[in-house]
Specification:
- The longest helix has about 70 residues.
- This protein is an alpha+beta fold and about 325 residues long.
- A 4-stranded mixed sheet has the order 1-2-3-4.
- It is built from 10 helices and 4 strands; from the N terminus they run αααααααααβαβββ.
Length: about 325
């Protein structure tokens, strides 16, 4: 990619503008009165300085564009008021190239409407003052061509910038997707490794006993299965403290269900630790038959909702029935 330093463009624009000012000063003896030409030179110099002044914004402010347009209309009127249209005025018609340069700068700074209005006003004034043939002899056509070139380049660069931003956004999305896939793959491998590490001893014991287990061993298997299920469905709800309290609750005969549906994925580490610490405390202090901890929906003020249900039979297996009573309802907020 080839890029041109911005300061170099500013210097070139300043040199072109200074050249027109020098021509205007050099030809002050041609007009009948030099005063209008001096006023025109001062207005043009001020407009050029303001237009080329370094700014963070590429687009020219509207007030400055309006000022440049007013200067481009006033310059021909001021200078030609003291010139003879039928004579060879030489460099005294410096204003034509000056207006073209000023409007080219406006076009380069994305004020295309103002740039075209300026050169159209110059063309109309020239035809009224010296006739249609003067458009070529005075260089008005050249000024129009420069504005047209600036318009084309500005449009091409704007389109290129949009495409660049679109491609950059697509690249970021692709990188994010790839990172998410890698994270899912890594998480899956970690969970498989954890499951294998936890379940392998029990599975070998079952094989060794040909599936004949006593009641204590069956309870241990059910507890192990629940722990593995937690790792799959609980995801971000699990910390060492939560695992310990869930295990203790199951040892007390409580059925515990952890459901992570992505509601706390956007929390930072500090906020998540606070929420899960409160979750561990809630599980530790609950004596219901069944505990359900679920992440709240995205946008909810609560991060995690904890429900403790007690059944009429007290065995915890009918907690979803009509006889279940709510013993605990806790909404852990996202904000402290």
């Amino acid at each position: 990619m080839i890029s041109v330093p911005r300061w170099l463009l500013l210097v070139l624009g300043a040199l072109f503008s200074a050249y027109h000012v020098i021509l205007g000063v050099y030809s002050l003896g041609v007009p009948a009165s030099p005063v209008p030409a001096i006023v025109a030179l001062a207005c043009y110099a001020l407009a050029t300085v303001l237009s080329l002044w370094p700014s963070a914004r590429v687009r020219m402010p509207d007030w400055l564009a309006a000022f440049d347009l007013a200067v481009s209309i006033a310059l021909p009127l001021l200078v030609t008021s003291q010139l003879d249209a039928s004579a060879d005025n030489g460099y005294a018609t410096w204003y034509v190239a000056a207006v073209g340069t000023l409007m080219t700068i406006a076009a380069a700074r994305r004020q295309l409407v103002v740039a075209w209005l300026g050169v159209i006003a110059l063309a109309v004034q020239t035809m009224v003052w010296a006739g249609p043939l003067a458009l070529g002899s005075l260089g008005v056509i050249g000024s129009v061509v420069w504005v047209a070139i600036a318009h084309a380049l500005t449009s091409a660069l704007a389109s290129s910038a949009r495409e660049t931003r679109r491609y950059a956004q697509a690249e970021r999305e692709a990188a994010a997707w790839q990172a998410a896939q890698d994270a899912y793959l890594f998480e899956g491998r970690m969970r498989l490794a954890h499951t294998n590490r936890v379940a392998a001893p029990m599975l070998r014991r079952i094989i060794d006993r040909d599936g004949r287990l006593n009641e204590a061993q069956r309870r241990e298997c059910r507890t192990l299965e629940a722990a593995i299920r937690d790792e799959i469905r609980g995801r971000m709800l699990l910390t060492d403290a939560v695992r310990v309290e869930v295990q203790r609750a199951r040892e007390r005969g409580i059925t515990v269900t952890l459901l992570d549906e992505g509601g706390i994925d956007d929390l930072d580490e500090v906020a998540r630790d606070r929420v899960l610490s409160q979750l561990a405390e809630a599980i530790a202090g609950c004596s219901a038959d069944r505990i359900i901890a679920r992440t709240a929906a995205e946008g909810s003020p609560a991060a995690v909702t904890v429900v403790g249900l007690r059944t009429a039979g007290g065995d915890g297996f009918e907690a979803d029935g009509e006889d279940a009573e709510v013993e605990l309802w806790l909404e852990i907020p996202r904000e402290p």
